[in-house]
Task: inverse folding
């Protein structure tokens, strides 16, 4: 009897193993070409190493060696000083897809899905038929285990092909070595860039890369603080969706709805729980599983409506302003940027029931290329994102900001701005919404976008302030060049020619400058870090000035001021002085000394001066209007006495040398 | 109607090449002014006539364009101004030193001398040349009075013109610029004043000043100078001061008409303007350099059409140059306006050598005779 078509088809149906599925869909995991396969392998190895060290509270020391292993073949070895892996777990960790401890945890971690490193093992096996070579030692055992293993693509099970012991000269750690079809080159999407990015956001790690030609690149540790392991936290009701709530209600556990709300969610106190059930028209005594249909919707609406505690940041591991700056400085040191904006670390917000937060660092100037788009470094949970820049929500947020308002060029006020800047954007979350399994780009989301934009704006405002300051400095520099370098020579030359003594230049100098200038300097001295400000009255008349300094509040109490300030406000980080009367060309100085190694930047203190108007003030800002400060009488009187019209005529004249330039381009001879 | 030294007797043609102390007195005056300002506590400054096209004024009496009354200020308030003031006195110092040592210097040497002026060092030769011109204006002297001169650049003359030149060794040589010189013609020295060059005589009827060397060669090979009793003068692009001065002297002293034969493009119009009307950069001495009776022969915008000459499209820069000429007072005549507008409308320019389209003899047998007849130079 002939078989029916249905029977025939049924006979062909069988379970497709996960491994087999991924074998046919390599690109999903980032193994679609030899360049990318190498990067993905390095990335998974390094991420695992960093996560393992962090959990074990060890300062990570990660070595990545890439060596030639035949034509089109590279051997990649990633070695860490983590806690090591128990022998019985080794095959599962490296030889089985979707095996891991982090997938179900509601906290931030680098690897989430547990497919990464085993996918690399799989790829290596497929392209070179060589097994993964794993060495791992735990502190409690004398010797390290050495295992060679392959991944059985049919059964999604590891196959151990060799098993040995080794006396390893380290207390604990793991090393995995793979031979795969791959290609090495430096570039935007390379292991080199990946390690550089990782070094910036993991200043507590020491990372070493050995390239196939033997070049050794070392990123030394810039911090000895191990970031805290993010705690697991239950989801937060804000942003929770209906399906997710229904699913959670059905899970075994609490007997009543009230208990369910108070125990299974973050930010819900028992009082808030009663408020929620009240708003939803429920009693709180119901069995959680019984809440369905309209009652379910009412419950969710009430959960969104009631004011709750904000989500705890404990499930997140932000890098933090101090370490962002340190990480950037450690890696970009040789570029000598002129400005590190104070890094921005936004408070945590909730999206889809999970907390997230955004951090932004910005660096400007120095050796960064001025005529190209800025460098954008994207990170999710401390992992550099190197692919799919165009499809990433972080990129969109950067591109939609009008950077022209903040002093960078940008064609039409959209797109990546152009200028000598580098922008670091970090998104930390227990669940980062990636656009795909390859975890290369963050998906668009209105809440995340809002936070990104806010953080970027803060960083951009710092840049704008810096650029404005710099322009004023350049203007001041021009004047200083005139009075210090040119004027004295002009006086000597003309005096010689007419055979008379050189006249006193003070009146001319103050007329040319016509500013009160503040020059600040930060330097390390034997007594500590010293901040100096020198105020010079380069105006043609005497001045009584009030000087204010504003310091980061955490640094303020550490400073010893000289002379003693006439007043301070530690809470706001401010100190002020009424300066002695300064005649034309007169100068005076104030200083503050901080303990050695205090991290104080020249851009940290802000200086404000009262008693002279903005147009005649350099190196400091006029007193902000909202400070509501009562100035000493002497300052006010001196300022009023000096209210005189500027010398007439000078401004209306045509600048001969500026006009001449146009003639030069027109003509001839 | 010799336009000479009426009101501007002090600065005009070959003004007193006075003895050093006299020539350098004005520089002393400048130093004194700045010293007094410093002594009074004022920001040092100088006022100079603006050398811009907006400040060109036509001088009826001389028939040339000279500097108007608009003044600019060079002040130590600005870095550029302060630097130029400082350089001015380094320069004055250097000039005085040369006078003491009886030396002269080329413009290029001066540029290198400034290496020792610290902050006052020039960044380009343009900068040093401009400052020398400024000093000419301020002191009402010529750069030769300051013992500064350009390099010999050898613009050449071919034709029946007999001159006496006093050479470097002080020996007077007399020769004819057609019969006594090689194929390269007579190379003009930078000094073309009477004490150096004297005109003895000529049978030529006119002078034809030519932009490109290739065209000079063509006319010489075809014997144009002899057949048409012409003196050929090579302008070498924008003509040097000595070339313009020489043309003016021939025109005025030998009463020969001058025609200017250039490419047909916006830049050639400017060459003609600086020959006939005066250049912007040297507008302070236009009365000494410009030949107001010089006439433009071509190539004109209409020549390109009438003679169907091979042409190039005007570049963006060409168009900009033409538009700038429309606001240049020197080109404000009806004739020039329509010429410029026609070139803009057609969007085409042509080189003078494009006439070779019709053969090597076409320019001498057809084009020039036709144009000269049109202009009434030949019949």
Result:
């Amino acid at each position: 009897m002939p078989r029916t078509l249905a029977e025939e088809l049924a006979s062909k149906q069988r379970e497709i193993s996960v491994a087999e599925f991924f074998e046919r869909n390599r690109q999903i995991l980032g193994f679609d070409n030899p360049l990318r396969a190498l990067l993905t392998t390095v990335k998974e190895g390094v991420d695992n190493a960093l996560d393992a060290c962090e959990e074990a509270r060890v300062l990570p020391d990660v070595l990545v060696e890439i060596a030639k292993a035949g034509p089109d073949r590279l051997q990649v070895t990633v070695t860490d000083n983590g806690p090591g892996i128990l022998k019985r777990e080794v095959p599962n960790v490296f030889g089985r897809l979707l095996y891991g401890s982090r997938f179900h945890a509601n906290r931030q971690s680098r690897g989430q899905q547990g497919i990464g490193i085993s996918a690399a093992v799989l790829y290596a096996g497929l392209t070179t038929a060589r097994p993964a070579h794993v060495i791992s030692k735990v502190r409690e055992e004398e010797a390290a285990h050495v295992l060679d293993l392959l991944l059985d693509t049919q059964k999604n099970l590891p196959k151990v092909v060799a098993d040995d012991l080794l006396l390893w000269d380290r207390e604990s750690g793991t090393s995995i070595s793979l031979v795969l079809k791959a290609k090495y080159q430096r570039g935007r999407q390379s292991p080199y860039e990946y390690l550089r990015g990782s070094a910036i956001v993991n200043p507590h790690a020491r990372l070493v890369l050995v390239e196939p030609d033997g070049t050794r690149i070392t990123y030394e540790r810039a911090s000895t603080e191990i970031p805290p392991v993010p705690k697991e936290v239950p989801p937060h009701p804000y942003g929770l969706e209906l399906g997710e709530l229904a699913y959670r209600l059905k899970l075994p556990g609490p007997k009543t709805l009230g208990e369910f709300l108070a125990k299974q969610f973050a930010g819900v106190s028992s009082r808030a729980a009663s408020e929620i059930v009240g708003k939803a028209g429920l009693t709180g005594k119901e069995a959680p599983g019984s809440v369905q249909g309209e009652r379910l919707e009412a419950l969710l609406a009430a959960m969104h409506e009631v004011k709750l505690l904000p989500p705890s940041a404990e499930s997140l591991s932000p890098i933090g302003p101090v370490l962002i700056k340190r990480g950037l400085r450690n890696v970009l040191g040789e570029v000598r940027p002129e400005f590190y904006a104070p890094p921005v670390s936004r408070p945590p917000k909730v999206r889809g029931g999970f907390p997230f937060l955004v951090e932004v660092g910005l660096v400007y100037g120095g050796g960064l290329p001025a005529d190209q788009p800025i460098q954008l470094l994207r990170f999710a949970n401390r992992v550099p994102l190197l692919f799919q820049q165009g499809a990433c929500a972080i990129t969109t947020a950067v591109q939609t900001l009008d950077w022209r308002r903040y002093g960078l060029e940008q064609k039409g006020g959209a797109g990546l701005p152009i200028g000598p800047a580098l922008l670091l954007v970090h998104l930390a979350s227990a669940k980062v919404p990636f656009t795909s399994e390859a975890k290369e780009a963050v998906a668009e989301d209105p809440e995340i976008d809002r936070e990104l934009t806010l953080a970027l704006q803060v960083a951009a405002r710092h840049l704008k302030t810096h650029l404005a300051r710099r322009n004023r400095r350049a203007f001041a520099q021009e004047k200083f060049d005139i009075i210090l370098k040119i004027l004295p020579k002009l006086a000597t030359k003309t005096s010689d020619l007419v055979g008379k003594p050189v006249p006193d230049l003070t009146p001319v100098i103050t007329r040319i400058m016509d500013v009160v200038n503040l020059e600040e300097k930060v330097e390390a001295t034997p007594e500590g870090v010293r901040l100096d400000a020198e105020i010079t009255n380069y105006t043609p008349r005497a001045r009584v000035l009030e000087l204010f300094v504003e310091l980061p509040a955490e640094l303020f109490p550490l400073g010893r001021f000289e002379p003693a300030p006439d007043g301070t406000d530690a809470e706001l980080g401010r100190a002020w002085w009424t300066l002695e009367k300064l005649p034309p060309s007169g100068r005076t100085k104030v200083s503050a000394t901080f303990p050695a190694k205090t991290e104080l930047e020249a851009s940290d203190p802000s200086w404000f001066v009262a008693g002279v108007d903005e147009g005649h003030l350099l190196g400091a800002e006029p007193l902000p209007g909202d400070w509501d400060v009562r100035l000493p009488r002497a300052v006010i009187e001196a300022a009023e006495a000096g209210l005189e019209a500027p010398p007439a005529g000078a401004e209306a004249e045509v600048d001969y040398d500026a006009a001449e330039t146009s003639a030069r381009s027109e003509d001839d001879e | 109607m010799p336009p000479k030294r009426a009101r501007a007797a002090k600065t005009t043609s070959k003004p007193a090449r006075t003895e050093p102390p006299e020539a350098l007195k004005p520089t002393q005056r400048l130093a004194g002014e700045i010293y007094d300002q410093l002594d009074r506590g004022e920001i040092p400054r100088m006022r100079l006539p603006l050398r811009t096209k907006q400040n060109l004024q036509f001088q009826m009496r001389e028939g040339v364009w000279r500097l108007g009354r608009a003044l600019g200020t060079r002040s130590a308030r600005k870095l550029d101004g302060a630097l130029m003031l400082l350089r001015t006195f380094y320069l004055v110092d250097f000039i005085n030193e040369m006078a003491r040592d009886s030396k002269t210097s080329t413009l290029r040497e001066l540029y290198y001398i400034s290496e020792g002026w610290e902050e006052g060092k020039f960044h380009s030769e343009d900068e040093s040349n401009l400052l020398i011109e400024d000093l000419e204006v301020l002191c009402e002297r010529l750069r030769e009075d300051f013992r500064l001169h350009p390099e010999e650049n050898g613009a050449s003359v071919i034709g029946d013109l007999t001159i006496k030149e006093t050479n470097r060794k002080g020996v007077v040589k007399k020769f004819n610029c057609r019969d006594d010189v090689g194929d390269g013609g007579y190379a003009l020295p930078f000094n073309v004043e009477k004490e150096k060059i004297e005109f003895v005589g000529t049978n030529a009827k006119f002078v034809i000043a030519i932009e490109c060397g290739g065209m000079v060669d063509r006319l010489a090979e075809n014997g144009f100078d002899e057949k048409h009793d012409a003196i050929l003068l090579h302008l070498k692009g924008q003509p040097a001061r000595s070339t313009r001065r020489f043309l003016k002297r021939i025109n005025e002293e030998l009463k020969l008409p001058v025609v200017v034969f250039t490419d047909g493009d916006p830049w050639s119009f400017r060459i003609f303007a600086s020959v006939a009307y005066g250049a912007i950069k040297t507008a302070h001495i236009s009365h000494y350099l410009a030949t107001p009776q010089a006439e433009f022969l071509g190539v004109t915008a209409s020549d390109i059409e009438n003679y169907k000459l091979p042409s190039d499209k005007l570049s963006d820069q060409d168009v900009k140059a033409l538009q700038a000429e429309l606001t240049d007072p020197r080109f404000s005549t009806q004739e020039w306006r329509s010429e410029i507008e026609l070139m803009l409308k057609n969007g085409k320019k042509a080189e003078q050598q494009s006439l070779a389209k019709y053969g090597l003899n076409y320019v001498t047998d057809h084009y020039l005779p036709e144009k000269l007849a049109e202009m009434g130079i030949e019949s």
Summary: Residues 446-498 of chain A form the longest helix (53 residues). Chain A touches chain B at residues 478, 481-482, 485-487, 489-491, 493-498, 500, 503, 505, 507-508, 511-512, 650, 653-660, 662-664, 666-669 (CB under 8 Å). Chain A is about 30% helix and 20% strand.
